[in-house]
Amino acid sequence: MSQLYRYPMMLDLRRWIQIVATVLSNAWLLFPFTGTIYQGKLKSFCVPGLNCYSCPAAVGSCPLGALQTFMANIRPSLAVGNFHIGFYVIGFLGLIGSLVGRMPCAWVCPFGFMQELIHKIPSPKIEIPRILAWLKYAMLVFLVILLPLLVVDLFGYGENWFCKYVCPAGTLQAGIPMIILQPPLRGILGTLFAVKLIILVVLLVSMVFIRRPFCRTLCPLGAIYSLFNKVSVFRMVHHPDNCVLCKQCYRNCPMGVRFYEGANQKDCIRCLQCLRKSCKYGAISYEVAGALPVEKKQPVKES
Amino acid sequence: MEKSGYKTPYLLLIFFLIVLVVGINIGEVEVVLEKAISICLSCIGIQ
């Protein structure tokens, strides 16, 4: 029996989970009446995906925004004897990463889901240079950690650099809806908003042609999770003796991962599309805590 | 992969669980809530 028929519901299941996660992350449907964002206790909790907490419908906090806020406020916090340096968010991201690595990107991130849907628009598809994948680590180090930490005002407060200058999810989910909901905000729109709008439009257009361009090149949240891919409880497994190097896994991968070069690469988001849809030779499987849930197939390569 | 390699995820899980609990105990949940219930104009590129 081929892998194709072993996991017949897997892809559909992922779509459903993406839909449910997107709705649950943005479940405050009263915002058209209140004209502002949700302000309840649920916002104490971070969501695992990229979902701006200034989105009028958001019911949870974006871990990336929260992390930057801690970095930006460390000095004033220490000055008054608090040690609010982001343990809560770092612990949350580390727990998820240790369990499943970058899996949230494929299963519960609303922005990742949107990129996959836009990429379905029929068009010529192009590939990006692999070196661009390192850009997201630069975003993480500089815009999420160092600049909020080091560039501060007279009172010691920094800024959320990634949110402010780059994040397209913030522009799409929060910026645009808020200027619709609160007309007075339109009067203070400036160059910054225009720049962010251009970034958003460029990314939206590129999503048609390129597989998950934001996740692969710019997302610091994916960069954090990716650090756990090789050491998480859930891991992908490559069986080289079964692999015929047909590269079907690469063609069907929403992240353009060349699985045949090795499992658990940093851009693998564990969507399991390669397992379910691509590999007919039993070269791809996964393990949970070191155990293979499905017995490995015998090699099919001819000697 | 060596058997010992399978200990790493559990050590990481315990470590980050402790970090999370420390964060909750020193009041960081309230800090996250306080930030998230205000519209962050700079975060969304308006100001």
Keywords:
heterodimer, A: 303 residues, Alpha-Beta Plaits, 2 domains, two-stranded antiparallel ribbon, 16 helices, 2 strands, 48% helix, B: 47 residues, mainly alpha, 60% helix, elongated
Explain what you see:
The complex is a heterodimer of chains A (303) and B (47). With 303 residues, chain A is mostly helical. Chain A folds into 2 domains: 63-226, no CATH class; 234-288, Alpha-Beta Plaits, CATH 3.30.70. Chain A is 48% helix and 3% strand. Chain A has helices at residues 3-6, 10-25, 31-34, 63-72, 74-79, 87-100, 104-107, 110-119, 135-150, 161-165, 168-181, 191-209, 213-217, 220-226, 248-252, 273-278, and strands at residues 234-238, 284-288. In chain A, strands 1-2 form a two-stranded antiparallel sheet. In chain A, helix 4 (63-72) packs parallel to helix 9 (135-150) and helix 8 packs across helix 12 (191-209). Chain A is globular. Chain A starts with a helix and ends in a 15-residue tail after the last strand. By secondary structure, chain B is mostly helical. Chain B has helices at 7-25, 28-36. The longest helix of chain B has 19 residues, at 7-25. The model of chain B has no long low-confidence stretch (mean pLDDT 87). The chains are: A mainly alpha (303), B mainly alpha (47). The interface between A and B is large, with 62 and 39 residues.
Quaternary structure type: heterodimer
Please report the two chains with the greatest interface, counting residues with C-beta closer than 8 angstroms to the partner's C-beta: A-B, 62 and 39 residues
Alpha-carbon distance between the termini of chain A? 21 Å
Strand content of chain A: under 5%
Gap between N and C termini of chain B: 51 Å
Beta-strand level of the residues of chain B, as a percent range?
Answer: under 5%
Structural class of chain A: mainly alpha
Shape of chain A: globular
How many DSSP E strands of chain A?
2
Number of strands of chain B: 0
Coarse shape of chain B: elongated
Main sheet: strand order of chain A? 1-2
Rg over CA atoms of chain A: 21 Å
What composes the largest sheet of chain B? none
Largest sheet of chain A: 2 strands, antiparallel
Query: How many helical stretches of chain B?
Result: 2
